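User: Show me sequence and structure for the first protein, then do the same for the second.

Assistant: Starting with the first protein.
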Amino acid sequence: MAESTHSGGDNRGLPDNPERNTPIPSRAATPGTDGSQPPGTSKGFRAWVGKKYDKGKAKVERGMDKADKRVKSLLDRGKPKNEGEGEATPQDAGGSSKVGAIAMGTFRTALVIAATLVPEPFKGPAEALLKVVDVIEKVDSNKEEVEILKKRCHLLGSSIVGVVQGKDTKLLSKDLRDSIGRLVAGIWATLETANKEKSTGFTAYVLVEEDVEVLKKANKSLDELLHCFWIENHIAGTIVLADILSAVQDQAGNSENSTLDRLKRVPGAAYDSQAVAARIMPCFEGTRSTLLANVGRWMIGATADGHNPPLYILDGIAGIGKSTVAITVAQRASDPTINCLGATFFFSRDQEDRKTSLGFVHTIAYQLARYHASYGKAIAAAITSNPEALDKVLSQQFSLLVAKPLDSLLRQRATPLVLVFDALDECVEPDASAVLTLIISSISQLPNVKVFLTSRPELGLRSKYMGTPNANIFHLQEIEDLIVEHDISLYVNYCLSPPKIQEALGDSYDTCWQPTAEDKAKLAKLSGKLFIYASTAVKFVLDKQHLNPKRQLASLLDLESHSPHSLSKLGGLYLYVLESAKPDENAVNWLSQFKMIVGAILVLQTPLSVMALASLLVEEQGAIKSTLGNLHSILAPLGEGSALTYKVHHKSFPDFITGSSCPLEFQIVEQEHHLNLAKYCLQVMNRQLKFNICQEA
């Protein structure tokens, strides 16, 4: 990737203060008022009351009644009217409770909606909060902190509306209702301290507008509440922040500092690098929602059991979707409106610089330096004052380049900074164990930092992280079958819909045929808990070489009945793809070509284009393409023309084809192909090297 590749996004849209990282539109609308302006009171208080408190009470009740009716009409919008009746009511049988379009309006409207949705024990705070809302919205003051408070309330209201607008309130998840409830309870606790009670016949609230320190504290608390609500629901996929904020304050970007270029980072390890993005796709929309909601709650410290460690470890078997979850968390955490992603490192055993620990700390330091200008200055100063730190052992590198320079800055943060590390098991030993020790003992101990880590449960690593009390460990294969089956069904139904089949096969697709709901359900069930199975199966069905999706799907659905019982579910699929690609005629020649080509692809440290591979193996490019023509579901062709390159679709395929469970006719023996590769290289040198090859005089 280019020099600009990093995990934290650029700094446009970042506040000047890294600890105050909730962006507020510079011209956010202030909710209007109805009726006369509230009269001033002595001692700097503003009370929304009339000359007599009994009149004020009546006005409060009328205001709440109007808001309740307005929200009721929004909830009723789109409901069928009963015959012979006027407006349908929420109790109408069969009626929809979908929230209609709502202008991003008053805080009150949002809170009345929230009061109808949140469960106990949040209903009390929601109803109490309505009593102070008008004080905030109607106060007439030009003081900066009062204006900030009103804008915060406007954004909070818009955020609540944003998560329910256009949705059927009957179908809102418990997670979302609880999230709204926690937000409302937090707002109530904050605003209650910024108001004083005054009682004459009934309770009225007045804003302490002259007490700047109280208002500043309230604004900071609202910042934290808003930011945590955004993080939790953006990670869970229940809120689209771009629809809520039309503009984010511009900020000056990071100034370039040549000192940071001394960090030997690994650009391809960032979640948004070409190397990672080309091979790992984010979660399909609507899938993994429960897991992502759990991760969102962990980030903000709102876990159900109260256990909120700084480290979240997601482990699971190959192909179950760990990396997909990791890149989804990274993408959503990096959204400019919440901007809580500090750094990422995606390990890969296929890339030399991503399978060792050599560039790990340098990469984290560089990405954090680019996260915010103040972080960059601190890290650059550390390099300048202690340049030998660049070459210290891993733990000292981290202490001198990251922990000590950033400690005070991280302590000032109102919300956590998230670091995402994927596929630690693909890092070679002893490096992987050293990195895990660093994560557990140092990285996750940074103030206001949360670390999200994925790995296969390899014995050496598992024995280390299972014993730590500071980790939330989730075994992905233990997720409920019904949840995974539902997620995979969503994916299969989308990929095998007529428009997607047409897109994949073009004019060769016979639109008279489409998979039945029963067939798609069977394929989802065959996938078990393995998303890679579903992905490979879909690629096999839509293979452009076969151009017969009906036959391909039918053969897959019959797979379980004739797959060897000694093979895993995924191994059985890989074997079936290989057997389907093997021609009936000249099978021996094809197998010889297959082993030579696929063996070279697997043992090469850096993938070669078809043109370069053909030159190395002394083969025709056409022979390589034809041999791999029916294997696109497991060996993905990337690029075009002279840049066409075949890469392994998923690391579980090399595990299968080099393992003992693979039949001998397809099995690749790595040692043999390493030796063959060395011979090919010597042959190239023998053909092309000559005396005075540069033809110097």
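Switching to the second protein now.
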Amino acid sequence: LSAGEVLKNLNKFYKRKEIQRLGAENGLDARLFHQAFISFRKYIMESSSVSADLHIILNDICCGAGKVCLLGHVDDLFPFFLRHAKQIFPMLDCMDDLRKISDLRLPPNWYPDARAIQRKIIFHAGPTNSGKTYHAIQRFLSAKSGIYCGPLKLLAHEIFQKSNDANVPCDLVTGEERVYANEDARQAPHIACTIEMCSTNTPYEVAVIDEIQMIRDPARGWAWTRALLGLCAEEIHVCGEAAAIDLVTELMYTTGEEVEVRNYKRLTPLTVLDYALESLDNLQPGDCIVCFSKNDIYSVSRQIEARGLECAVIYGSLPPGTKLEQAKKFNDPDDPCKILVATDAIGMGLNLCIKRIIFNSIVKPTINEKGEKEIDSITTSQALQIAGRAGRYGSSFKQGEVTTMHRDDLMQLKEILSEPVPPVKAAGLHPTPEQIEMFAYHLPDATLSNLIDIFVSLSQVDGLYFVCNIDDFKFLADMIQHIPLNLRSRYVFCTAPLNRKEPFVCTMLLKFARQFSRNEPLTFDWLCRHTKWPLAAPKNIKELVHLEAVHDVFDLYLWLSYRFLDMFPDAVLVRDIQKNLDDIIQVGVCNITKLIRASQSAAAPDTAAVVSEDFPLSRTKRDTRLVSDRHGAKSTEALSIAVEVPGERRAKNLKAYRSAPRQEDLKSHGRGSLANRLLREGLLTQEMLRQLESEWQDQRRNGRYGVGSKRDDQNSSKEMGKKKK
């Protein structure tokens, strides 16, 4: 057979609309059809021989091409193509079964207990600091039984304490912790839990679902969908932004349940100021500077304390106990700490007495629905959530204020805050362990990561839902794929709550899985040996970051201990040392500026004085960092040295660090000079200044300024002499 003729007819076969339609009917969507054809074509073109029946068909097609009476047609290749496709995609043989398993179009039917009762849905809608959650909690406390579902451990812990303080026995249930109100460990009629831990089988009189707008969250939205559709309670009190009202109403329409909406207004006024802060010299007691990166947290706190002011620090990776202590320090009227530097972690879960919110930046790195990192302006919802923390009802500040650090950001912030919050359009879903197990039954040779991929590609959802991002799940599945585990255990390990950007935590999960697969219990001694416990107080930022990672490892152990009690037997001991570690981290955070100085000294002793109160984090430098981050590179912000950038990248950052203007260089120029002002604003570096001076001198020597330049230079020299005197 002529290879050219065969290739031409194979490509003709691929382009036939009828063949593509037949492929779709047999489970081959456009992507699978293309991959199957590439493989099929390669098989034919590169094989030394093919089966006799396929050879006959190819011969008939090639010989009959162009003749009036065709011996064969390219469509005759389809049975051979389909047979080949089923060899490389085994799921095609059981496609109908797999489609039924991955059909996600009727999530309400997954919860028969909830569908068996008529539930009353009450939506408490309003902005931050409007009392919406307070009214829902009052109904929770007055009920015979109830469950509170919140997005954070801090929120669940707050309701747990409030309930027991009000003599309403309440248990605390989070992924890592169980605290019983009764000494005999009997379950109390009330439960405060993180939303992923709520039970859809236990009946309650009242359920409270907090922050319902997070039902749209690309990673965790499924937990709110599950709680809303599945909680078996007579009354469901939903709290959150008004933007979620329409979606909740539509979802409840599919269950035959009506929604009662109660709207709330903010209890204290919130004012957007007409001026930016511009300088840290303008800070006032009760101010909170909001940053969106750790490096900015370190930089700003260092500059504040250089001015003789004390500040509290709160960011996402801090343990809950440390966050509470820092909040307590900031709120205490007798404590000299009157300034707070924080990330958007303050948006929920902490009660803070803030007078003024100052956005250090209005751009934030985010993860989109595809799991890709993007850097964009904060959304209206995020801006309102953070700004709303100012002027909390019942605090010493009767009204809140909000502004920006930089003048150029203020107008954009006003625009963001004035825009309506876009409505929440869809609710998240996630495949259950049972669904994945049924997939594995049909595809026993597929890896867990492949099973998830196939499930998502085949899943069908209607317009009210979307499938949540599963990149973290797949990352862990690939990481532990080589470890022999049964499917259910493997699934549990892959749903463990950890930050995959923390190498130490990921390494410890790998060790946990390997030890588990050997059926060897992970004892307290084993954990201490692998985490090098006991640990000393941190001497620099790098050590503080490591302590935070160790705290996450202890959290991971506790989380797994509630799923595999016999294999993780020492949860009580681990919880004790975690509390000790929390205290050590608190000491480190209280001395964070000392740690920053130590980090700078260790990284570049000759450049320790680079960042000072005369050199604040500039807008230009911040924008440069964002461009770098957009391309996946580490920040070149000076303070990242010896903090998060090890090895070869440290040299790169040192170069950027040393190019920054030094204190003595700044002093060589008058404080009010243009050069000094440009240096302080970050628009000019010392290296650029030297280069400009060199170019200017070269131009003078070459006579680039024409006749009279020499006289002008002499006049300039006299002027310089007068200034010196």
